[in-house]
Amino acid sequence: MSSFAFATAARIAFGAGSAGQLPGVVAEFGSRPLVCTGAIPDRFAALIAGLDGVRTWPVAGEPTLDDVRAGVAAAREHGADVVVGLGGGAVLDAAKLIAALAPNDGDVLDYVEVIGAGRPPARTPLPFIAVPTTAGTGSEVTMNGVVSSPEHGVKVSMRHPSMLARVALIDPELTLGCPPTVTASSGLDALTQCLEPYVSPFANPITDGLCAEGLRRAGRGLRRAHAVGDDLEARTDMALCSLLGGIALANAKLGAVHGLAGVIGGLTGAPHGLTCATLLVECCRGTVTALRERQPDSPALGRYAEAGELLSGTAGVGALLDWLAETVRLLGVPTVAEIGVSAEQYPQICRQAAASSSMKGNPIVLDAAELEAILRRSA
Predict the structure, then answer these.
(1) Which of 141, 145, 152, 303 could form a disulfide with 96, with the two C-beta atoms 3.0–4.6 Å apart?
(2) Is the whole-model pTM more than 0.90?
(3) Angstrom distance (rounded) from CA 245 to CA 237
(4) pLDDT tier at 96 (50, 70, 90 boundaries)?
(5) Distance CA 79, CA 289 (A)
(6) How much is the average pLDDT of 247-254?
């Protein structure tokens, strides 16, 4: 077995009602919190009202470079000494970036990858506390924040171990208000973030166990959470799936779904979770086909078969693909064309995806023709 390292949030509190710990947790780290919320901060007004010295900062969608710059300015103006992310994955990413950049000089472009200098933060970020209100990205336990640049047509990350949350409060009750469309896209993203690290060449015994449990929870809870939005048991399953997937991806990497989804999101502005959901079935099918043709002895094929049993109760790659396809249909996931991708964009998407860091955990390198075939089948 190869050696490996492992990192996650300093402290995790999971369970119904855990968000009630927020005032005490914030007080451990500071007295002037900046709370990043979704576009409608009143949704969690009672929770925010329990905080002293607070300023809220709404994040309307997936953050852009200018959104992050404005958030950093707000944190400095407020004299924030702790940053809370209270919302979905986009909100948590924005809060994480603001916490990292507020104490540091320069612009966000000095720190992000691909289009920027990729510099590590010279000063320790402000304490970041994560309180997710959707079950999807797992951003509460990852060390990177994703930001989009409309000018460049890409999504990029700033990443550093110091950006990990000091405390992650995962309260399934906060997800009870998620509409079915958000439950579908975020839930399939969470499932993907357990599946891709499970078949990754960078998997290790810790991530294996996390991914297996996450897949079991998704198999039990995803369809129920979508069909019956106030089913707390199903919401708890999906909150745990999201948490476990976030820990796993931070330590074992992702694959083709995220490699393609990141590029598509940058080009079209389509929400990340929704894009992952549209690509999931055909990325799995395309990767399995490539493995069977070029690496038939790959252990990843056995992992895909195990994932079929974890999700559906029936072992086998066919069982996995059938369960995923049926779930995507039941949850009403749109096609790639319906989220704004045209066939003319396929070559550019495939070129950029092949070079992305998110593609590194795929169990086999997919060539341009294979990636284009995935997009065609997903259309």
Answers:
(1) 145
(2) yes
(3) 12
(4) very high
(5) 54
(6) 94
